[in-house]
What does this fold into?
Amino acid sequence: MSDEPHRALEVEGLTVTYRRGQGSLDAVRNVSLRIAEGQAYGLVGESGSGKSTLALAIMQYLPENGLISGGAIRLAGQELATLPGEQMRQVWREQIKLVPQDPGSSLNPSLRIGDQLDEALSDGGETRGGVRERSLEQLRQVHIADPERVAASYPHQLSGGMQQRVLIAMALAGQPSLLILDEPTTNLDVTTEAAILDLVCELVQSHQTAMLYVSHNLAVVAAVCDRIAVLYAGELVEDLTPEQLRSQPLHPYTVGLLDSLPRVGQRAGVDPLLPIAGNMPRLDEVPAGCVFAPRCPIALQLCHELRPDLEATQQGSLVRCHRWREIQAGAVDLRAARPANVTAPDESLSGKIALETKDLVKHFPVRRSLREALRRTPPRSVHAVDDVSLQVGQRRTLGLVGESGSGKTTTARCIVGLVERTGGEVSLFDIALAPGLDGRDAAVLHRLQMVFQNPEEALNPHRTVGDVLQRSLERMRGLGKTEARQQAGRLLEAVRLPPSYLDHTPGQLSGGEKQRVAIARAFASNPDVLILDESVSALDVSVQASILNLLTDLQSEQGSAYLFISHDLAAVSYLADDIAVMYLGQVVEIGPTEQVLQPPFHPYTEALLSAVPRIDAAAGIERILLSGDLPSAVDPPGGCRFHTRCPRLLGEICRTQAPPWQQAAPGHRYRCHIAPNELAAMQSPAFRDHITTVSP
Amino acid sequence: MSRYIARRLLFLLLTLLLTSMIIFVVTQWLPGDVARVILGREASEPALAALRAELGLDQPLPLQYVSWLGRFLTGDWGTSYSTGEPVRALVLERAGNSMMLAGLTLLIAVPLSLLLGVVAGLKADKPLDATISIGSLAVVGLPEFVTGLILIEVFAFRLHLFPANSSIRPGTGFFEALPQLVLPALTATFVLLAYVTRLTRAGVVEEMRQGYVRTATLKGLPRRTVVGRHVLRNALLPTITVLAISFGWLIGGLIVIENVFNYPGLGRLMTFAIDRRDLPLMQAITLITVLAFALANLGADLLYAGLNPRIRLE
It folds into this structure.
């Protein structure tokens, strides 16, 4: 037994190794951490940091080629690494539970929720009815209002947030002593994420369970956890409290992560992000000295030669850096060494409207069943986009935000012609665009380009980067072979990639580099308008920051107009001059970024803003939780479409009458029955993060 | 679910109607003058005209089809040109034999190939998986008449376990016919085995990678529960469809096997009918085979829907 019984989990010098071919690679090296009962411990790192490997190793659920090659894992004093399979099964059953990243695929699609829950709860000695009663109780505990209906449902009938609640309910069955959450909110909408995070905090407190919260998002972890471990290239580089993270992080990587994370209200031209240069080293190329030295802005010769130890500070944090004392004393400036290179957009050059949509409508017909067709039920349709009017000026960026299902992507696809609109107009510099690609001139197509979310799917894996760019240049600008080759080199330079990459295939590039290539290709035709659909959402924060800055730079060089679509309000506000907020196919608020981010705002915008996880949990911000799920777009609610979830519902008028546009300020409009001055009086002005550019 | 079943049944009827039209057009109308086919080259023009009138061949085509279909549905399947017997009794007798053979084949092939497939899938890329894959592929590589003859040589001539000739008499029941069914059923099993095994293996490998398997394992469920309760119902979905198609093939397509073993099934009756240009016989056999295919598919669809709520609830 352990001499420290209050420690729920102790990990000592853990090393996890993957066998690959003849060799082996250490994905996690010499990591130690301790979690007490009732403590929430955050594990943060970007992809490749080893955080998921660490979590799986603790669970004893490594892939077949992975093994624990050193160290110990003790759960309530019991060593797990050497536990035989049958006993480990008991540990899984009773003591250690996982809430996975992707709730959709983590539930069996062909079994009812109730049966899947019963299975986790049943210990064999109980009647079925008794087990089901406890399952329903478990669902109530995660605030599911109608547990009977949910228990009788199949996973695909529930929303992502509801599925994740079910998995949390499942994980809390039998009062586990350790709960591991692996990116539990990563694929959820921000409003859903906020509700799940609140739930997790509440449950951990009421159950006194030890929790390990794995995430790439520092803001989320800082909001939920009592202590945070930062992992880089398989090593623990800093271990600190959220307060220390906010006030004085000591490791250059932690600082780099913080500086890469856009905050709501932070603007590219005013207060640029400071991304970390370079990429996370591959497992087979881990540097001999400090693992972060190749990317560190203040690395010394010593750093490249000698690996630093994890040292304890007077404040009780742990840091693995040769220069932490200097950083603590303020003797080195981490930021001065990392120029942001962001050129503020020259406002004087903007002028004409580059892209305009007028009353854009897209309805997808819903197939009628045979019976409906025989009874002549009128055909129904999904109101994906309804009367969306947008304008993007030359050299300006319009941000389009909203939850999934709000119609952002369909709007973009209608504009580029991938989806044929049902009604309304789209024009590019006064040229009216046909609904479909077939009706559009090649020249017009070239002036309107799009960058997608997933560069893996957008690039042909068998062609080199040079081929991809060259082809685009030949086809879209009509260049000859040699000239196209030269221009391809210049395009790569523009997206800050070395010319040697011309001969690389996409498989040899990291995710961020691939997205740079996709952007370079989009710029091959010198487009007037570039549509970016969640183009940075899947990238690590440090990579995302450098792409955001790159986009800003390219815009001031080339003068393109951007339509920047994202569910991430912080990223949108960083880049966009204007923001349009969409809900259920309609624009509910539109205006200059500065205006949209302060009251009065549409109640939906207010809820979105309040849900954004933020590092500096600014005082006085109360999360406004939206009730229920997004209604179906087949029969959108009458009156105001938001009325079913609106926290500021007035009454009958909202249910029956479509709200008018209210003018909040010049160019700033929102669609609501509440007048601007009344709305402003209700709303808290404290939503924007304090942009106190943490002075060194 | 009942709406789903109703819709599938409607589709089934439409399928049968459409195939009956095709069969009618191909056999009754296209081969030229049926009266001349029946009466022969030397027949006189008045005799031909009389027969055409008797068979209704002077009527417009749609009318001919409707009356043909009506007769078929009321049980009058016509008389065989070559034997002069009523077609219905002959075809139903042979269809019963084919059902017996198909039944025994599935009884052997389904558990065997599912077992092999699941084991191979769970032990993917291990020696056992390689053994199963190579073994089943080696068997499927041999043509049916080769495996059939090898089985006859080993089990009939050397070991004297089963008869080499499977020509059962009309009216023989399943258990009575069992010894004579074993070798043809084994031959057909060999044809199906590799295919169904590979498909099942692929399904299991695919499903074992899914997140819900991890969820189930980390609930602390024993492995047999994880596989039996969670994996199989998803992994076997594609296999079910393929087995349904195999059933149709077993009913109407075992021409080679039935000939090797001299087994009186529909396949051999079909070759007989084709040899003699026996149109009523061909029509009836084809329609029965199509019916078997369609019913097997309906069964598979319903089973599929029973296991897969995403289909059922749509």
User: Anything to note?
Assistant: Chain B has 15 helices and no strands. The CA atoms of residues 185 and 250 of chain B lie 10 Å apart. Chain B touches chain A at residues 3, 7, 10, 210-212, 214-222, 229-230, 233-234, 307-310, 313 (CB under 8 Å).
